Amino acid sequence: MRLKSIAPQFVVPDAVRAAEHYRDKLGFELLGTFVKPPVFAMVRRDGVEIHFGKSDDGAAAPGSAHRDEGLDAYIFVDDVDALHAELVKRGADIVEGPVQRIYGRSEIVVRDRDGFKIAFGQ
Known about the structure:
It is a single chain. By secondary structure, the protein is of the alpha/beta class. The protein has one domain: 2,3-Dihydroxybiphenyl 1,2-Dioxygenase, domain 1. The chain has helices at residues 15-26, 80-90, and strands spanning 9-12, 29-34, 40-45, 48-54, 73-76, 93-100, 106-111, 117-121. The strands form two sheets. Strands 1-4-3-2 form a four-stranded mixed beta sheet, covered by helices on one side.
């Protein structure tokens, strides 16, 4: 038995708009939206899925909002420079990088429309 992957769920004001942002700015595929009106959405890129659930109070709940250096997700990639070039073309909010970390990884950090911060590292 082994663990295979993880799909974080981000609490957002609008699950559809969040998923569309990941499609348009970060290159994910929109897998679907659920319930009418939609309160849940899923995106995927390669082996990575992210799920979005609509918040009850209309606010996003990024954990990184409470920490200057915090992240909400870390995604491992095999070519961070190529991803950086793609995300620049897509108009993603790149807040850092590419930068070489002291622990040997090259990373970029992006912020999504709801304030969640995601690092992509190689």
